[in-house]
Amino acid sequence: MFDDSWLEDRQALRRADGGLRRLAEAGARLRREIGEAEEPLRQMSHLDRPRAVIAAGSEARFLRAMLEPVCPVPFVAWPAHGLPGWVGALDLVAVFATAGGGPDGLYRTRQDDEVIRIYLDQARAVGARLILDIQPGRARLRDELRELREWVVQPDVDIAIDPEWNVGQRGVPGRTAGKVSARKVNRLAQRIARTVRANDLPPKLLVVHQFRKGSVRGRTRIKQRPQVQTLLNFDGIGSPAAKRAGYAALSVPRLFDGFSLFYRRDAPLMKASSVLALVPEPDFLLYQ
Questions:
Q1: Is 56 exposed, middle or buried (0-12, 13-18, 19+ CB in 10 A)?
Q2: Which parts of the chain sit beneath pLDDT 70?
């Protein structure tokens, strides 16, 4: 019940003045901001649907509570001012596995430096990072990382590896089920950490893709390092129920967890509310 005698209490009104003023101005502020948003929204009308929506600022959680139920993509609330460093990261397969052995018989091809440069420039244009993905075929991960050194020394470039395409000395991509051991992941992270220390770089992300238990052997023995944040990313394709089960089975509590969604191959594509309800909550989302 509202006591209208409060309106005669000068001290009470003085104490509530700030909140009352903001409340009284809310309608006008909302109308003004709607008008100011019309032109930016019109300019974006030709773009594809965004992969996610991120609200930043002190009212971010309130916006998520209001809009997430009707948002067709994941809605993330970031309560700090400014966007987190992982927003809008671009993922480029810098070394991709091939069906043929190629000149050196290693069943992989490397992207041209010019292609990587174009992607890095595009990422920097929007304040994003670039993730370079390695599908090694029969090549050694350390050799492919060495070939990418020019890019790894950049402060906004991270590394991902795809064990599915790490087929060993006799395997064939697409026929042989690839895998990687925790020992090799730790050695790769150690090499990246040395590069970070030697060049005084900010910490880097090492994404390890996985879709079955055999993808990463001994995953619980993977070590975290201050210079390298290792993340296990579940990239299985299938129904929401199958993806939830696979994600839960392969997550490791003390590591970061990621989750991939495939626009055309998941059946159906999981809703934002379902993705954010995953346990544990994903630290990383990759849309493909």
A1: middle
A2: 1-7, 13, 18-20, 44, 46-51, 80-88
d(CA 56, CA 63): 9
Confirm if 247 and 266 have CB atoms less than 8 A apart. no
What span, in angstroms and rounded, lies between the C-alpha atoms of 265 and 288?
9
Please provide the size of the chain in residues: 288
Query: Could you tell me the two tokens for 286?
Result: 């990759």
Distance separating alpha carbons of residues 189 and 224, to the nearest angstrom: 8
pTM for the full predicted model:
0.71
Angstrom distance (rounded) from CA 163 to CA 168? 10
**Phi and psi at residue 217, to the nearest 5°:** -80, 130
What is the Cα–Cα distance from 131 to 192, expressed in whole angstroms?
Answer: 13
Residue with tokens 């993922």: 91
Going by C-alpha positions, the residue among 230, 288, 219 that lies closest to residue 260 is: 288
| pLDDT tens-place string over residues 130-152 | 999 999 999 999 999 999 999 99
Amino acid at 191: R
Q: What is the DSSP string of 85-121?
A: TTTT-EEEEEEEE-SS-TTTTSSEEEPPHHHHHHHHH
